[in-house]
Amino acid sequence: MNPLNQPDDPPVTVDVLQQVKPGCEAEFEQVLSDLVKAAKGFEGHLGVNIFRPANHSNPEYRIVFKFDHLSNLHHWEDSAIRRRLLERTKRFTSGSNQFQTLTGLETWFTLSSQGAIVPPPRYKMLVVTFLAIFPLINLLNLVLQPLLKPLPTLLRGLIVTSVMLSLTTYVVMPRMTKLFARWLYPKSKG
């Protein structure tokens, strides 16, 4: 299934914050490991990042799941194995977990070190996206157009757009987000 043809089934990022009971970190880590292994077996799973607590007096874990399509995320969320594993985590956690699901351009602007995913202002996303796409589209046109010249115009456009969006989503924007992190996500003064 091609995400470019499925606007109602976009790529998705799920950000989960979970408090672990003091002294239960090892048990939680085992269940978390089982959860990650299980998620990897589901279609469309693009990876998971685990950010362990920096402060042991506040043992909050951040887990970020990525799926290629919202429908594949729903298959994972509705699975019996996920329900069983989440039930096991309840013994080792306190409070309810906080989660946020993001689709669309916001997923380009997710930093791995933040406590929760809060997209930057739209004008900042526009500037960084422009700085990423302008050189990329010109480079792709320079490299691909001579190779694609024999093809019909619409097919050339489709191929260039598909390559550009794939590179933008998986290669360029994660690096641009890190490069511009201080501007996109300034530290609040407190």
Automatic annotation (TrEMBL):
Residues 12-81 form the ABM domain. Gene3D superfamilies: 3.30.70.100. Keywords: Membrane, Transmembrane, Transmembrane helix. Pfam families: ABM. The keyword Oxidoreductase does not apply. This is ABM domain-containing protein. The chain crosses the membrane at residues 126-148, 154-173. The keyword Transferase does not apply.
